[in-house]
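yo, Hsp20/alpha crystallin family protein is done. seq:
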Amino acid sequence: MLMRSEPFTEVHRLAQQLLGGSSAGTWSHPAAMPVDAYRSGDEFVIAFDLPGVDQDAIDVDVERNMLTVRCERRPVDLGDEAQAVLSERPLGVFSRQLFLGDALDTEKIQATYRNGVLVLRIPVREKAKPRKITVSAHTGSDQKVLGS
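structure:
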């Protein structure tokens, strides 16, 4: 139901480990926006960790079956006299793209944001839900046996 659309995820992860971080600016690797996805009943749930991001700095859109989440983590305004002693929290624009399968109803996505976690709930389409097929007995004489 969900496919990652980031072919170089492992390359980015390895580069992060070898280089010990990344430069400021636009981030598009998974470490900057970790995500969990799971199915819960008749809906698909995707949770993105976005600590330190204001709700108004989050943009979610779907084009065809491509889900895109973009956000911006801005620096904390401490005034003109503040001097950075340690700065490890990445700032800037983050984005993730996930390919959603046809079984999901992208017209009915619900998004909530609480405690730094963006949660998207996507219902499974009715036609994609499992259903029971009734087998009826055939009582007619039009059944033919091959080879007779």
